[in-house]
Design a protein that fits this description.
There is one protein chain. Helices cover 37% and strands 15% of the residues. The protein contains 14 helices and 13 strands. The strands form three sheets. Strands 1-2-3-4-5-7-10-11 form an eight-stranded parallel β-barrel, surrounded by five helices. Strands 6-8-9 form a three-stranded mixed β-sheet, covered by helices on one side. A two-stranded antiparallel ribbon has the order 12-13. It starts with 13 loop residues before the first strand and ends with a helix. The chain is an alpha/beta fold. Bound molecules: ligand GBH. The site of ligand GBH has 15 residues, from loops. Its EC number is 3.2.1.21. It catalyses: Hydrolysis of terminal, non-reducing beta-D-glucosyl residues with release of beta-D-glucose. One of its GO terms (molecular function) is beta-glucosidase activity. It is an enzyme of class 3 (hydrolase).
Length: 445
Amino acid sequence: MALPPLPAFPTGFTFGVATSAYQVEGAADTGGRGPSIWDTFTHEPGQIADGSTGDVACDHYHRYPEDVALMAGLGTDAYRFSVAWPRVQPDGTGPANPTGLAFYDRLVDTVLAAGIDPVATLFHWDLPQALEDRGGWMDRDTAYRFADYSALVAAALGDRIKLWVTLNEPVVHMTYGYAMGVHAPGRMMLFDAFPTTHHQLLGHGLAVAAVRAHSGSPVALTNNYSPVHACGDTAADRAAVAAYDALHNRLFTDPVLGLGYPTEIDFDLSVVHDGDLDVIATPIDGIGVNYYNPTGIRAPDEGHPLPFEMVQLDGYPTTGFGWPVVPEGLRDILVTLTRRYGDALPPLYVTESGCSYPDMVGPDGDCADPDRIAYLDGHLRAVRAAIDEGADVRGYFVWSLLDNFEWAEGFSQRFGLVHVDFDTQVRTPKTSYAWYRDAIRQARR
Ligand code: GBH
């Protein structure tokens, strides 16, 4: 690809790759792992586009040495993976399952031996089913269970993890999992799902302290952020934009940075106990930014159940998922966060950025993905531009190292730098893999 070289990045900037446990590990019944809400959900007919499950996924549980070798070949600085809670506590409570922890112990040591920094996410949506049976994140007790589990993981790995992420995209888990029911646990509670917001945030705050008791490494929270494009300029459109922004971009950030819940949406705050907001505002060392695309918003029609309506943004190329490709949106959100929160904002890490395109295996088994190269090139330049505008961005993690189990889309959306044949488990680096390897070298100069 004849793209101009990337601009140099600040010394110490981290270039990484990311995955999550349920999406890559497989080995669902191995080593005493208990069932998670995603095992339950994927085994219900009709929930996943292609009828697939994460039972085997990329078999990363067994093939991690090969996957770490692929990371080493990339020259990546860091590997962001997630720990499966039901491997560590099969029913969500009690002492650690040693076999489950031993897997992460091996993984982390292998990653370190390859000269790569391990970055651990404690919760990437795979709640133990036993806890869901007791109410899941609707139940306040789950926050305390999460803190206990986090302490077990930190006690085992705290000497080696270089960056911790408590929760991944709690807004997506709340909206897709509990409000709209398109992800596990498949509940459709609309705004009655608010307790899952509060209890995830409470769990986050408690987990920060639990991790710190065992590890001196920075602790962050990862959110999905989406700059809002106003589609209409009436007062009602502006109110809709503010409501979407409050729900999607501020709900899991304002309280963490000590500002309390946004007031644009009328949540039932009766689940908030005295002192909770202080726990939630426990100082943290980073905010993870997962960015995929901006969102078009206009005022809702009469009778619409939400205070905004989403509009497909025209005029942009789209990924295989149909999501608009807008690299500028990443610069926008990084700069917006920097200006919005000022000194209260800790350093930013782009913990996910990437795109899905259909499988393109050539006749010789080669995988050319020029659209992914253009996507990543544009988004890395957007990060560099945000840094120039004053954003303190410390890292960029490509989603994802491997094609993997893409939640409700199953294996039909492929986000990897490396192609995976899910029949044979053969890994084939795509052309974007070689491009990212070279881009990292250029950007480090
Ligand atoms: C992340 O979620 C997850 O952390 C990761 O596990 C997942 O595999 C990855 O991204 C790819 O999906 O309404 O058309 O504008 C991403 C959450 C929510 C981001 C929906 C894009 C808007 C699509 N996504 N969102 S659209």
